[in-house]
Amino acid sequence: MTVVTNSEAETEALGAALADRLRGGGVVALTGELGTGKTAFIRGLAGGLGIDARVTSPTFTIVNEYPGEPPLFHFDMYRLSSAGELIDIGWDDYLARGGVIAAEWSDVAPELIPEGAARVSIVSLGGDSRRVTVDVPEAEL
Asked: Can you list the domains of the chain with their CATH numbers?
């Protein structure tokens, strides 16, 4: 599915809409350039999961954890240079915890993104407009 959003609120709403499909856990792999709205999408996802927390990009901490049912683990792989670094910070442990993982810059370690992950690509169209492509494998969610 591809949607054009024209505001941050519309991008968040799209993230919230995906949340219902992830109540039992799962991975959302996001790609897009700096400033395209990946964190806004995840903020909407968190709200849709019922998480009432200030969602910010974990660029320097690599991962933020937000408690909920299920919990949300928000990764930002921008500063990582390899899949090995992601393994070193406990990627497999997070996968085993059964929460929802939202991974910005997932193209840094595509080999670690599980088969069946939802994939979100966000492209700026200029101004506040974004083209958001969401691919959710039906059999996995």
From this structure: 2-109 (3.40.50.300)
- Distance of alpha carbon 135 from alpha carbon 58, whole angstroms: 24
pLDDT in tens, 44-65: 999 999 999 988 887 778 899 9
pTM, full prediction: 0.89
| CA distances to 7, 10, 41, 68, 119 from 14, in Å | 11, 6, 7, 20, 13
Strand order in the sheet with 118-126: 2-5, 129-135, 118-126, 26-31, 100-104, 72-76, 63-66
Look up tokens 């897009």; give the residue.
32
Q: What is the pLDDT of residues 19-28, one digit of tens each?
A: 988 877 799 9
From the number of C-beta atoms within 10 Å of its C-beta (0-12, 13-18, 19+), residue 95 rates as middle
* 63 exposure class (CB count in 10 Å sphere: 0-12, 13-18, 19+): middle
- Residue 2's DSSP bridge partners are 133
Helix (H, G, I), strand (E, B) or coil at 49: coil
CB atoms within 10 A of CB 130: 25
Amino acid present at 103: A
